[in-house]
């Protein structure tokens, strides 16, 4: 395993420090790192703001699972974060348990994580084409001229 790791690190170093293209490749890696760090910061800010708004709403109206949006088809960022964090925590806990519980809890944890990811529109087949709040089929029906003449 260590030899394979060293081989991979050597190949990566050769790729990045190549005299001809290494500078460009390093610049691309740096640019992607900056881009994804900004995306991550934006996501963290969005989840934080959404969670703060929900907590404030529950403080005024009382706690409720409905306020967190668990019953909606498309979950809010805070709801996806809570479910994903719960799934991750359950998976980490399952790794410390015996064989029987590990598989069962691990399966439940992966289900929670998958649910959080699919509601985040990570998987393209779960996206719904909507425009102005209407499904695409309603838009097409509205756009077709009526043949009642």
- The overall strand count is 2
Mean of residue pLDDT? 78
Bin the helical content: over 70%
Please indicate the count of domains. 2
User: What's the tally of helices?
Assistant: 6
* SSE topology string: HHHHHEEH
Protein architecture, described:
This protein folds into 2 domains: 1-63; 64-124. It has 6 helices and 2 strands; from the N terminus they run αααααββα. It has helices spanning 2-16, 22-61, 65-68, 77-94, 99-119, 136-143; strands at residues 130-131, 134-135. Strands 1-2 form a two-stranded antiparallel sheet. A hairpin with a 2-residue loop joins strand 1 (130-131) and strand 2 (134-135).
Blueprint of the fold:
Elements: H1 2-16, H2 22-61, H3 65-68, H4 77-94, H5 99-119, E1 130-131, E2 134-135, H6 136-143
Helix pairs in contact: 2-4, 4-5
């Amino acid at each position: 395993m260590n030899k394979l790791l060293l081989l991979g690190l050597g190949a990566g170093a050769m790729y990045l420090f190549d005299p001809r293209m290494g500078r460009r490749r390093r610049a691309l890696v740096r640019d992607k790192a900056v881009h994804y760090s900004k995306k991550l910061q934006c996501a963290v800010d969005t989840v934080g703001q959404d969670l703060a708004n929900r907590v404030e709403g529950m403080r005024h109206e009382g706690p409720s699972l409905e306020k967190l949006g668990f019953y909606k088809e498309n979950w809010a960022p805070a709801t996806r974060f809570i479910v994903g964090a719960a799934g991750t925590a359950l998976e980490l806990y399952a790794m410390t348990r015996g064989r029987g519980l590990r598989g069962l809890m691990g399966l439940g944890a992966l289900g929670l994580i998958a649910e959080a990811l699919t509601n985040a529109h990570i998987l393209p087949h779960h996206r719904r084409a909507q425009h102005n709040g209407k499904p695409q089929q309603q838009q097409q029906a509205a756009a077709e001229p009526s043949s009642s003449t």
